[in-house]
Amino acid sequence: MTKTASSAIPVFKLYGENQQWPTPDLLHCETISRRSRDYQWEIQPHRHADLCQLLYVHQGQAQLEIEGQRTTLNEATLQVLPPLCVHGFRFAEDVEGYVLTLAAPLVSHLQAQLGATVDGLQVLGSYPAGKDSDYLNNLFARLQDEYADEQPARDMLMHALVSVLLVWISRQAIQRRHPRAPRGREYFRRFTQLVEQQYREHPKIEDLAHKLGISVSHLNGTCRELGGQPALQIMHDRQLLEAKRLLTYTSMTINEMSEVLGFSDPTNFSRLFRRRVGFSPKAFRERLKAETPED
């Protein structure tokens, strides 16, 4: 891959989509063919600011271009693509497999459960499936089926299946050594961790920059380069993701939701939601109801 400035590399949530996370779920699962077919089986180099992706190629050939290095997969392989990793793919038309995208809050939760044994979702890794090929394919297939359906305790089961995948990855990676992340990426990683811990408290960006030991302008520059937007907007995105989840999965009033999310005034919450999402929290909930089929 020709060396390209970081600012020229597009930042997507899901490939081909804008900065809006398309679902209140903390993960997205689809077959490789689902998205790549629309792009003639080629996904151009891009990156995700705060998402981890697991690419599982079960059958068929895949050409990977990751951080400028090209490799070809001819056997079942699970590829971990951590946040900020520049990656692109070219797939054979008979490829079979899945792409699982994990939002930062879920990654943080899973890593906390796993402990300090290994940072399996924050480090680039390629793991041949070997004898576990069918086992992994069944796990991904079950996860994709669950994602596409609306069964009771759906969220719990999906997270359980993802936990199984993380344990598999961690066991594969436990004896591998990884280079230290560049300083800018380390700052960004630590910033997103602070956002996850404190977004309900609405910390000042100045205070977060101070905790990182850098200036506000340095933090905003890093966030724009690696996350595609300034630090405050990243904070707002996390607050709005939680708001969408509350609107989807609870019967909280807007006032109750505003208080839970740490807003001093429900009007401020509604104004931010409308400005970033395009319509009010009430309208968001009404759209969900209209799109949900009745039993």
From TrEMBL:
Give the Pfam families listed for this entry.
Answer: AraC_binding, HTH_18
What does the UniProt keyword field contain?
Activator, DNA-binding, Transcription, Transcription regulation
Which regions span the lipid bilayer? Answer: none
Q: Which GO terms describe its molecular function?
A: DNA-binding transcription factor activity; sequence-specific DNA binding
Ranges for domain HTH araC/xylS-type come to: 189-287
Which GO annotations describe the biological process of this protein? positive regulation of metabolic process
Q: What is this protein called?
A: Helix-turn-helix domain-containing protein
At the highest ranks, the source species' classification is: Bacteria, Pseudomonadati, Pseudomonadota, Gammaproteobacteria, Pseudomonadales
